[in-house]
Write a structure and sequence with these properties.
Length: 709
């Protein structure tokens, strides 16, 4: 693709919001406050990367409601109790405007259950081309309840705090019909576009509608800590926290899990098998009850009851006074699970995900776009994802050391070292992958031939992070404050969460997680951030034009500015269309012949890296590619933004606030990552888009006014 279509399309987001707060003194030592908030957002934005004239705008209305009540009771001058109650609801219905059934009938796709009136579309990714993906219809609703009670006791040189939190959560989501995915990679003709024109996909996927999701779970936590002023120059902080993250369950128990040791599926009870298993699910695949498999009946996995997290910190003024402070700390932190990791248990025998891989015999493909699926209920095509029966919460150890120095003039310097080590990170592993071999793939080489892929989400991943930070800051004094900070960081992990999935990525080679170890993609090696607020010295009481007639217009302005600069992401090349490992793993990481990174002066948007440094592994080589992850350095970015503000008095306690702001003030082109698929020779290594992170996109100006009273 030459990416030669450009258009400026008007987009807008409407926000409506109100907050109401009431404060009330029950007694002189007992204060109560209550707050109610409501926010409604309606984005009118592009959907799916196609012209508005063809598919319209996204239809979305996001509503958030919050209620908070707090009671602070001073029992004695040294004993204070704070009780908090809260409720939050987020409802985010969204959809495109294209009807999937109409497109399926237009394309002649067979083998899908009819679903008229559903605003989803078939997915047709073509290697080397921009994937057109309008938003799938969704209407998720999430409710969170919260009860927190905290007690503070001051005793001599000790400040002791303890508390407990109980937080039930609910996640509800209907599951609308999908219309399949059809991938064109060039496996038939050597050209992905050619395969598309001939309607010969390499892989196809379909799933079926299942009952609405009703996830339920809760968090229970308690802590106790003590700030101990050991001397005038030394303060210690130590404590212990405990978290219990209840394994989620479904309100109606319509979930499943995988028993990978026996190649079978597990559901809560017999009534689920009798009432909710999809009638098209292959009858040959064994499904048993939780009691028969010795699984917990409702959650289908055991809880983690061992999440104790000790923490220790210290602050020391080695020379007395307040000019120099040394700080340090070490602690354990727990990684809670949400409903996201639980969502995999809603598939299996209920929504039935089937994946088919095309083969060509005597110049005739077994699958075409019009006939993209084999018969319903056939074995060897079913994909399932399960959670380890003994899945544990990952934990992080964090340590830091900081030197702070007052340089005078309200300017301070901070030098910091921060380290973290994450253990037992969750990742995905295809336990049904056959051993890589020079023997051509055959379904019978899988441990469980009745299935295709069985992805087990389990613990075992690791991550370690080291960073050095230098920061200089001036606190607000005489109309000026500023801050600048530079960070050098190295973040290595073998389960980089690049897909936004809570349960981690699925490793390519199920037998070798170590080959995944690399720099985390989104942790830059260098990052600099700075900010400034300056009350301009113009107008009444200032050095300039203090008595000039134009003071009312030119005086009283504030300038704020920020600047962000960072090095690029760590990127991984890929290939598509072939299975050199003979494991039915189509595509993946290629071989690496040379470094691949070009000198900085040779990088352009038409050739960002040396594509010839990578190659597709030889056919039937029985192995995966030799390249590591994160071996290509992507484009960095630099963003300068600025704004000016002024409040004009209207009358007593009423002001009009005027604002003029710019993001990416100098309109610097901050490029997105290059195309990385070496199987698309006309596209790989090129950059055809700009980045939007950190407001790095094209310059954006805003002029606004607000009435305050």
């Amino acid at each position: 693709t030459v990416s030669n279509y450009r258009a400026n399309v008007p987009q807008q987001i409407r926000h409506d919001q109100f907050d109401v707060r009431v404060d009330y003194a029950l007694k002189s030592n007992n204060n109560l406050y209550a707050r109610v908030s409501y926010k409604r957002s309606e984005p009118r934005v592009l959907d799916g990367g196609l012209p508005v004239e063809q598919i319209g705008y996204r239809v979305q209305t996001r509503m958030a409601r919050q209620v908070a009540i707090s009671d602070t009771w001073t029992l004695t001058p040294r004993l204070i109790n704070e009780l908090k109650l809260g409720f939050a609801r987020n409802f985010n219905p969204a959809r495109g405007q294209l009807l999937g059934q109409e497109l399926v009938e237009l394309l002649g796709i067979q083998g899908l259950q009819p679903a008229p009136g559903v605003e989803n579309v078939p997915s047709l990714p073509i290697t080397g081309f921009q994937t057109v993906a309008p938003l799938s219809k969704q209407a998720p609703a999430e409710n969170t309840y919260q009860l927190v009670d905290q007690l503070t006791h001051i005793r001599g040189r000790h400040n002791i705090k303890g508390g407990v939190e109980y937080r039930p959560q609910q996640y509800n989501a209907p599951v609308p019909a999908q219309f399949g995915s059809y991938s064109f990679t060039g496996f038939a003709t050597g050209n992905a576009w050619g395969d598309f024109l001939l309607a010969i996909p390499q892989t196809t996927t379909r799933n079926y509608v299942r009952p609405t999701r009703y996830a339920r779970f809760y968090h229970l936590s308690w802590f106790i800590q003590d700030d101990f002023k050991l001397s005038q120059n030394l303060t210690l902080n130590y404590g212990l926290r405990y978290d219990y993250n209840q394994p989620a369950r479904d309100k109606r128990d319509i979930i499943f899990n995988v028993d990978p040791l026996n190649g079978r599926l597990v559901v809560p009870n017999q009534s689920i098998i009798d009432q909710f298993v999809n009638p098209l699910f292959p009858r040959a695949i064994p499904i048993v009850t939780a009691s028969a498999a010795a699984f917990p009946e409702r959650s289908l996995r055991r809880g983690d009851h061992n999440n104790f997290q000790p923490r220790f910190g210290a602050a020391w003024r080695p020379f007395g006074g307040s000019k120099t402070v040394l700080r340090g700390g070490y602690g354990f932190y727990n990684d809670d699970f949400t409903a996201d990791i639980f969502s995999a248990l809603y598939g299996g025998p209920f929504s039935l995900t089937e994946t088919f891989v095309n083969v060509i015999n005597n110049s005739t493909p077994s699958l075409t776009l019009q006939r993209p699926f084999l018969g319903a209920g056939s074995t060897g095509n079913v994909d399932v994802t399960g959670l380890d029966l003994n899945l544990r919460n990952a934990y992080v150890q964090q340590w830091n050391a900081t030197l702070e120095r007052d340089l005078g003039g309200t300017v301070g310097l901070r030098l910091s070292y921060i380290g973290t080590k994450a253990t037992k990170l969750v990742f995905g592993r295809n336990v049904n992958m056959p051993t890589p071999s020079t023997t051509p793939f055959n379904q019978n080489r899988r441990p469980y031939p009745l299935f295709r892929n069985i992805t087990a989400r389990t613990n075992g991943g690791n991550q370690i992070y080291h960073a050095l930070t230098t920061q200089i800051e001036r606190k607000w004094t005489r109309g000026l404050s500023f801050m600048g900070a530079w960070t050098w960081a190295k973040n290595l992990t073998d389960v980089d969460e690049i897909g936004g999935v809570e349960a981690g990525t699925v490793i390519e080679n199920a037998f070798d997680r170590s080959r995944e170890r690399a720099d985390a993609q989104y942790t830059p090696r260098h990052r600099f951030i700075s900010s400034l607020i300056w009350e301009l010295p113009v107008g009444k009481g200032k050095r300039l034009l203090s008595t000039h007639p134009v003071n009312a217009v030119l005086g009283g302005w504030q300038l704020s500015a920020s600047y962000i600069a960072q090095t690029g992401e760590f990127l991984t090349p890929s290939f598509a269309g072939v299975d050199p490992s003979n494991t039915q793993t189509v595509g993946g990481i290629p071989d690496r012949i040379r470094n691949g990174n070009l000198p900085a002066g040779e990088r352009t948007i038409d050739r960002w890296f040396d594509v010839s440094a990578f190659a597709v592994p030889a056919a039937n080589s029985g192995r995966f590619g030799t390249s590591g992850r994160g071996v290509i350095s992507g484009p960095g970015r630099q963003i300068a933004s600025a704004a000016m503000f002024k409040s004009f008095p209207v009358r007593e306690q009423m002001f009009v606030r005027v604002q003029i702001s710019f993001t990416n003030l100098f309109n610097k082109a901050n490029f997105d990552v290059p195309a990385l698929n070496i199987s698309a020779p006309n596209n790989v290594g090129t950059i055809r888009a700009t980045s939007g992170r950190d407001l790095a996109g094209p310059r954006n100006a805003l002029i606004g006014a607000r009435l305050d009273w």
